[in-house]
Amino acid sequence: MAGAHTKASEVPAEFDETRARMVIARLAHLEGALLPILHELSHEFGYVDIRNVPLLAEALNISRADVHGTISFYHDFKTAPQGRHVLKLCRAEACQSMGCESLVAHLAATHHLAPGETTPDRALSVETVYCLGNCALSPAAMLDGELIGRLDHDQLDQIVLDATGMRS
Ligand code: FES
């Protein structure tokens, strides 16, 4: 496909403030409520929309910076909708020594997709992870929760093709 992919953060998303406020109000009484609320927002919407930040700061009487800090500290909290498929590429030491950066470069050059991005049709999101516990079979990846070992360029092309249903 010739077109460029957009960053996930650029994908427009519906934000239902009323629903978000209901989630926050339901859990705001908890001790250390921020994390449980973030988990619940993530569960309910599939990501934590950045427009929740002022709502959370106000409801919990904490600063917006604290809310931002917590969201960015926990990498599992996504701030944009994820693709229907999620490919996690390991870029830790063992996988680096076996060429994971060449996979990242191939993904960018051939599919115009980088870790942290989602295809415009939201078919596939790509993330960086640091060790999947599959070092013996590096470079390792995980597609929708399934481990992949010794990932090569051809397999990577096939994953993108299968997810998006399009040739690059
Ligand atoms: S370093 Fe990649 S799986 Fe361990």
How would you characterize this protein structure?
- This protein is an alpha+beta fold and 168 residues long.
- The protein has two domains: 9-73; 85-164, 3-Layer(aba) Sandwich (Glutaredoxin), CATH 3.40.30.
- 42% of the residues lie in helices and 11% in strands.
- It contains seven helices and four strands; from the N terminus they run ααααβααβββα.
- Strands 2-1-3-4 form a four-stranded mixed β-sheet.
- β3 and β4 form a beta hairpin.
- It is elongated and about 50 Å long.
- Mean pLDDT is 89; it is low at 1-12.
- The chain binds FE2/S2 (inorganic) cluster.
Report on the biggest sheet: 4 strands, mixed
- State Rg: 18 Å
Instruction: Characterize the overall form.
Output: elongated
Average pLDDT works out at: 89
| Strand composition percent | 5-15%
CATH architecture group name of the largest domain: 3-Layer(aba) Sandwich
Report strand order across the widest sheet: 2-1-3-4
Q: CATH topology of the largest domain, what is it called?
A: Glutaredoxin
Specify the structural class. Answer: alpha+beta
Q: What series of H and E elements makes up the topology?
A: HHHHEHHEEEH
- Helical content class: 40-55%
Q: What is the CATH homology-level superfamily of the largest domain?
A: Glutaredoxin
Outline the low-pLDDT stretches: 1-12
